[in-house]
Structure prediction request, 507 residues.
Amino acid sequence: MQPLYVVINARDNVGVVVNAEGVRQGAEFASGLRAGEAIPQSHKIALRDLAAGEPVLRYGATIGYANRPIPQGAWVREDLLDMPGAPSLDDLPLATATPAPLPPLEGYTFDGYRNPDGTFGTRNILGLTTTVQCVAPTVDFAVQRIRAEILPRYRNVDDVVAVTHTYGCGVAIDAPGAIVPIRTIRNIASNPNFGGAPLVVSLGCEKLQPVRLFSKDLPVLQEASGVIRLQDQRGFQDTVAAIMRAAEVRLEELNRRQRTKCPASGLVVGSQCGGSDAFSGITCNPAVGFAADLLVRAGATVMFSEVTEVRDAVHLLTARARNREVALDLIREMRWYDEYLAQGRADRSANTTPGNKRGGLANIVEKALGSVAKSGTSALDAVTSHGERVLAKGLVFAATPASDFICGTLQLAAGMNMHVFTTGEGTPYGLALVPVVKVSSRTALLEKWPDLIDLDAGRIAAGTATIEDVGWDLFRTILDVASGKKTWAEQWKLHNALALFNPGPVT
Ligand code: CA
Prediction:
């Protein structure tokens, strides 16, 4: 392969090396540019001489300032850049550049499950929700037996999943931050893939009582089989038997569900990235953004999240908001997170990982500009807080930390029934409740992990596919997987633990 770099925006003064082996010192690119030193794949090369203090531009935006003169052809490493400050939240544009609505995309469907509450499932799963960690091993034990002894008789049910977590007691449950984990558990219990009727296992003496979790108006608490209190049972084996009996009642109900034709507007797609590299913002994230536009056009809900990865691009998003209120909602979430990080004496720069840097991302600014490409080009329709249920259609920012497992957990609470996960460095991430479609930023990752990566976007950098091609591929893959086609993570049953976000104190 000839030495090759890609440039995203005509204003950029750096390019990103595409060649899998990197380029050697003296390598000459088609433009006539020569590499002044060996530069690894996905790292940046200076397109011209940069003076000390000059902005380094990628995506047409400043990702840093040269802290010494950088000659043309040099490897623009992390240590040559000073990071710019985060955009101020006080004078952001509010809905000043709201995009016109995209033309509707009609006729696309998937074979899913219709729920009584109007939501749509992509899998048919029995969920056992727990109110406190104390009961988790007992429930896990019961779930193993249910899977082995009962589930095989209910062919239409995909799985039995215990919603276990570390919350529920030993916490300041009246502190303002407690609302986040509490509503996360409540909303996961009614995720569309659970069919809408939670089965709850409680200990009895915990702070997070079932009534507090669901409010006593929910029908679940009036059903004999809806809540099992361990402290009402006689011994471990009787307890397990009670859970298994209640599970069987629900399995009979769930087994009557059939896949039927559902409109694509029933999809609630959560997107996030993990193990990003400098290709992520060129290949997989723009392809996800293209698919996001298709989903919005089809009337679906598309979520993007990860506050620290949009913080440095917030000015682009507030301008794109549907209206001033949505822009102000986004600013509220950014401000809340700035304060949360400040309490822990950190800032957004704590986000980047050694893998991000090995993959060529100099800092969080460069990472964020690549990350928000997942949001596509449509107007930002709504913003929700951590763990809230998303009710809006269209493009939604659902606030979450960027941590893969916490983001996934909060997107489940938001009502996600399909997850798209982009990765550059690679992670075998998967969730038990919804299918996870993993999209690679580089073809080398697909070649290394052919039985973990579902779709390769690296073809875009190699020039063998366009962003549109891969975006359409992803859109069709989402419909296929929503209809029951298994992802690699499902095939291997790779289920990362649910991880609650608890900004409140522990006692
Ligand atoms: Ca993430």
